[in-house]
Amino acid sequence: MNETVKPPVDEPAPANANEAGAQEAAADPAAAERDGFAVVEALNAENAALKDRMLRTLAEMENLRRRTEREVGDARMYGVTAFARDMLNVADNLERAIDHIPAGARAGADEALKGLIEGVELTARDLTAALARHGVKKLEPLGEKFDPNFHQALFEVPNEVLPAGSVTQVVQSGWRIGDRVLRPASVGVSKGGPKIAASGE
Predict the structure, then answer these.
(1) N or C: which end of the chain has fewer CB within 10 A?
(2) What's the Cα-to-Cα distance from 16 to each of 13, 23, 25, 133, rounded to whole Å?
(3) What is the pTM of this model?
C-alpha cells in the first residue's frame, strides 16, 4: 500500500519587519530596550536642534525689526539734512539783513520801511520755526562753555570776568539736526578769567 508523503510544512514568514522586530525583541529584551533608548535620544537631539534654530531665527527677526525701526527713524529725522543745510544760507542772509538795520532807523522810518523790516523779521522767524518742525534747531551758545563738538573757535577774547573757555561772541550761528551737528557755531572764546570747574567736581 502506497503512502502519500507530505512535504514538510514550513512556518509562515513574518508579515512585516515590525513583526520580525517584535519577535527579535521578544527573543532579546535588552536589545529592544537599547534600540528604544537610541530612538528617544535621536528624537531629543533633533528636538533640541530645531528649538535652537527656532530661537536663533526669532532673535534674528527681532534684531531686524529693531534695526528697521532705527533706520526708518533716522531716515525720517535726517532725510532733510541736505535741504536744511541749503536753507541755512537763507537763514544767515535774513539774520544779516536784520542785524544791519541801524538802531535808530526803525524809530524814524516811514510806514513802508517799517513794513519791510517787519516782513524780513517775520520771514526769519517763520523759517526758523519751519526748520524746527523738522528737527533742525539753532544753537544758542553765547555764555556757554566752549564745546568743540558744537562750536568752532575763531579767536580768543581777553576777559577777566567770564570764566576762561566761555563763548563770548557768536560770529555765525550753529545748527543741529536731531542729535547731529549740521553746522558748528563759529564763536569767540574768553581767556584770562577764572577756570571753569570740570563737571562732577
Answers:
(1) N
(2) 9, 11, 14, 79
(3) 0.61
